[in-house]
């Protein structure tokens, strides 16, 4: 079992729905991240949390709302999404942000389809 | 403006040969660099990282970094069919732990 667990693995939602993606890390890390991976595009960093504090919001539309209740859990709340938001959403964690050997461990991702 | 660039491939490599992957980056402030492997439908997994100029070897993999040329490479020796995947280059661009990824190079190892 991976140290970073994401649920659900697949999600289909309508543009008027509200859903949430969940991420849990069992590695004792203190930094967590949300990435978006669209076809043929680089991984895009969306949000960074360090010790539960949001340290980066990479110009993400407000229809994506992150929540980090503690260092082990990270959520991404979704509402009124658009079809172009369909992508693989990856959660990652690392021991400490900013160190030169900051290795990010990824979850298996949530494949999101907006219809 | 792309900050980390890779050839998309596919890079076709005969089994047993050396696969050579290249990556360039634009941010001179980048501190360290990571190579991830991603199988189709799976999440990225770290192969190795490098932050000093020169070579770093780990098993069949060698990472090379040239900060003056803003160039990172990955060599895969004795390529195996199981090495067929997309390889992602990433740079650590700031103290916030922001990993900037390239679009990836698809490698296909043919028996």
Secondary structure elements and their pairing?
The complex is a heterodimer of chains A (115) and B (111).
Chain A lengths: L3 E4 L2 E4 L4 E8 L5 E7 L6 E7 L2 E5 L6 E7 L2 E7 L7 E8 L10 E2 L3 E5 L1
Parallel strand pairs in A: 2-11
Antiparallel strand pairs in A: 1-3, 3-8, 4-5, 4-9, 5-6, 7-8, 9-10, 9-11
Chain B lengths: L3 E3 L4 E4 L4 E7 L6 E7 L6 E6 L3 E5 L2 E6 L4 E6 L8 E8 L6 E3 L3 E6 L1
Parallel strand pairs in B: 2-11
Antiparallel strand pairs in B: 1-3, 3-8, 4-5, 4-9, 6-7, 7-8, 9-10, 9-11
Q: Classify the beta-strand content of chain A into a percent band.
A: over 45%
Order of helices and strands of chain A: EEEEEEEEEEE
Q: What structural class do the secondary elements of chain A suggest?
A: mainly beta
Helix content of chain A: under 10%
Number of helical stretches of at least 4 residues of chain B: 0
Secondary structure class of chain B reads mainly beta
State mean pLDDT of chain A (0 to 100 scale).
88
Distance between the termini of chain B: 38 Å
Indicate the low-confidence ranges of chain A by residue numbers.
none
How many strands appear in the DSSP assignment of chain B? 11
Radius of gyration computed on alpha carbons of chain A: 13 Å
Number of strands of chain A: 11
- Count up the helices of chain A: 0
The description of the largest β-sheet of chain B is: 6 strands, mixed
- Which regions of chain B have little confidence, pLDDT < 50, spanning 5+ residues? none
Oligomer: heterodimer
Helix and strand run of chain B: EEEEEEEEEEE
Report the mean per-residue pLDDT of chain B as an integer.
92
């Amino acid at each position: 079992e991976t140290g970073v667990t994401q649920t659900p693995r697949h999600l289909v939602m309508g543009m008027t729905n509200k859903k949430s993606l969940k991420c849990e890390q069992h590695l004792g890390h203190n930094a967590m991240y949300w990435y978006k991976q669209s076809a043929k595009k680089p991984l895009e960093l969306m949000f960074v949390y360090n010790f539960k504090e949001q340290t980066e919001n990479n110009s993400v539309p407000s229809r994506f709302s992150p929540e980090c209740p503690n260092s082990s859990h990270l959520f991404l709340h979704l509402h009124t999404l658009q079809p172009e938001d369909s992508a693989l959403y990856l959660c990652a964690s690392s021991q400490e942000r900013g160190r030169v050997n900051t290795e990010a461990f990824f979850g298996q991702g949530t494949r999101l389809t907006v219809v | 403006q792309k900050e980390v660039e890779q050839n998309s491939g596919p890079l076709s490599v005969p089994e047993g040969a050396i696969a050579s992957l290249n990556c360039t980056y634009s941010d001179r402030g980048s501190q360290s660099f990571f190579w991830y492997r991603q199988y189709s439908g799976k999440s990225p997994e770290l192969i190795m990282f490098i932050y000093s100029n020169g070579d770093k070897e780990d098993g069949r993999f060698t990472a090379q970094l040239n900060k003056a040329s803003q160039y990172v490479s990955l060599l895969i020796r004795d390529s195996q069919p199981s090495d067929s995947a997309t390889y992602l280059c990433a740079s650590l661009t700031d103290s916030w732990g922001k990993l900037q990824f390239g679009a990836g190079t698809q490698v296909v190892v043919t028996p």
